[in-house]
C-alpha cells in the first residue's frame, strides 16, 4: 500500500501500526514505506524514543526488533537447556519404569509405572539397583530426615549419597520453573521470636510414623500443622483456644498465656503423664488422636528444663516455654482422624491446664477431677 493511499481515519486510529517484532518479521514489513507520523506511532507502541528524523526512527525500531528477536532465541535455547537438564535429573528410569526394584512409591503406594513424568524421580545405588519415587514423597522424606547424619533408602535402609539428595532437590526446584508447580520452601526463614530459639530443623519438619501410609488427606494435614508453626505466637494461642471452644468447651486463652515461667514445665509434665499413663490410652487410640506423628517428639522434658535453667533472658524463656506447650496442644487438637478424636485431644490439653491454672480449674472443675 502506498503511503499516499492511506485514509486519514486509518492513520488516526493507528490500529494497523501496532507492529510487534514478530509481525515485522512474519509480514516482512518495509518501514521505509511509512511516513514519520506513522513511524512515531510504531515507536510509541514499542515504548521507544519518538524524537529524530525519519531515518533515525527507522534505525531505532529496526534495532529494537532485532534485539527482541535475539532475546527470544536465547530464551528458547536456555529453556531447552532447562528441560533437558530437568529430564536428566529424573534418573535412569524415567522412560523405562520396569528397571525399578520397587513397584510402588513408599509413601503414596502409587504404582511407579503410573506416576506422571513431572512427579517422577529415580536413582541408581552403588549396587546398580534402581529405585523410583514420587518426588513429593521423596522431598518430604528428606525434610523429615534432616536431623540424621545421612538419608536412608526407605526400602533397604542403605545410606543415599548426598549427590543423589542434592539432585532430587535441584529437580524439585527445577519443576517449579518447567512444570509451573507450587513448591514447598525447603529453606524456612523464621521470624521473631522463633529465630532466637533452637527450633529451626526438626521443629518445622516433624517425623511421621514410620508405618504411616501417606495419602492426600494426611499430606494436607501435615502441611497444615507445619504451616501453623510459622504463625505468630499470640495468634497460635488465640486460634487453639478458639478451636477448643468450637469443639464444645468454654475456655480463655489467658489460661496458657498468663502462666508463670515455672508453670510451663509443670504443664508439659502433666500433659505427658495424662497422655502416656493416667488416661489409660491404647496405642491405637493415641494414633487416632495424633494420626501423623508422636505429639511429644523432639520435646523432651529434660531438654526443656536444661534450657530454662541455662538461659537468663526472661523473654527467651517465656517464648520458648509457650511455643513448646502450644505446639503440643496443636498436635493433640488438629491431627485427629475425625472430630471426635480431636475433641479427645483437646480435652487432655484442658485437663492438664486445670492442674496449673486456677481460672481453668474453677471454670472446668469436672476436668480437674476427671483424672486423679
Automatic annotation (TrEMBL):
InterPro entries the UniProt entry points to: SAP_dom, SAP_dom_sf
PROSITE patterns attached to this UniProt entry: SAP
Sequence ranges assigned to domain SAP in this UniProt record: 31-65
Signal peptide annotation: none
Name recorded for this polypeptide: SAP domain-containing protein
Organism: viral metagenome
Amino acid at each position: 500500500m502506498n503511503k499516499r493511499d492511506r485514509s486519514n481515519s486509518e492513520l488516526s486510529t493507528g490500529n494497523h501500526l501496532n507492529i510487534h517484532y514478530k509481525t515485522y518479521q512474519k509480514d516482512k514489513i518495509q518501514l521505509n514505506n511509512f511516513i514519520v507520523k506513522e513511524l512515531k506511532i510504531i515507536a510509541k507502541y514499542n515504548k521507544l524514543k519518538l524524537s529524530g528524523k525519519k531515518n533515525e526512527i527507522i534505525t531505532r525500531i529496526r534495532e529494537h526488533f532485532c534485539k527482541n528477536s535475539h532475546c527470544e532465541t536465547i530464551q528458547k535455547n536456555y529453556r531447552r537447556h532447562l528441560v533437558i537438564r530437568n529430564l536428566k535429573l529424573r534418573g535412569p528410569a524415567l522412560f523405562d519404569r520396569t528397571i525399578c526394584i520397587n513397584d510402588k512409591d513408599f509413601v503414596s503406594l502409587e504404582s511407579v509405572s503410573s506416576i506422571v513424568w513431572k512427579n517422577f524421580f529415580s536413582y541408581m545405588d552403588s549396587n546398580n539397583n534402581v529405585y523410583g519415587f514420587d518426588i513429593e514423597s521423596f522431598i518430604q522424606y528428606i525434610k523429615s530426615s534432616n536431623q540424621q547424619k545421612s538419608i536412608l533408602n526407605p526400602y533397604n535402609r542403605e545410606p543415599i549419597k548426598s549427590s543423589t539428595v542434592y539432585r532430587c532437590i535441584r529437580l524439585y526446584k527445577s519443576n517449579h520453573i518447567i512444570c509451573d508447580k507450587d513448591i514447598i520452601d525447603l529453606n524456612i526463614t523464621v521470624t521473631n521470636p522463633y529465630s532466637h530459639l533452637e527450633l529451626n530443623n526438626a521443629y518445622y519438619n516433624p517425623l511421621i510414623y514410620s508405618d504411616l501410609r501417606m495419602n492426600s488427606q494426611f499430606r494436607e494435614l501435615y502441611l497444615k500443622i507445619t504451616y501453623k508453626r510459622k504463625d505468630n505466637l499470640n495468634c497460635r494461642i488465640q486460634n487453639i483456644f478458639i478451636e477448643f471452644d468450637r469443639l464444645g468447651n468454654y475456655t480463655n486463652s489467658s489460661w496458657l498465656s498468663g502462666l508463670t515461667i515455672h508453670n510451663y514445665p509443670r504443664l508439659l509434665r502433666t500433659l505427658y503423664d495424662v497422655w502416656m499413663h493416667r488416661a489409660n490410652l491404647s496405642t491405637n487410640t493415641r494414633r487416632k488422636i495424633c494420626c501423623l506423628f508422636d505429639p511429644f517428639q523432639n520435646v523432651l522434658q529434660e531438654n526443656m528444663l536444661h534450657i530454662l535453667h541455662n538461659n537468663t533472658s526472661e523473654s527467651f524463656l517465656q517464648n520458648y516455654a509457650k511455643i513448646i506447650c502450644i505446639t503440643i496442644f496443636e498436635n493433640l487438637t488438629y491431627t485427629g482422624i475425625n472430630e471426635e478424636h480431636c475433641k479427645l485431644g483437646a480435652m487432655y490439653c484442658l485437663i492438664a491446664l486445670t492442674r496449673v491454672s486456677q481460672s481453668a480449674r474453677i471454670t472446668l472443675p469436672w476436668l480437674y477431677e476427671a483424672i486423679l
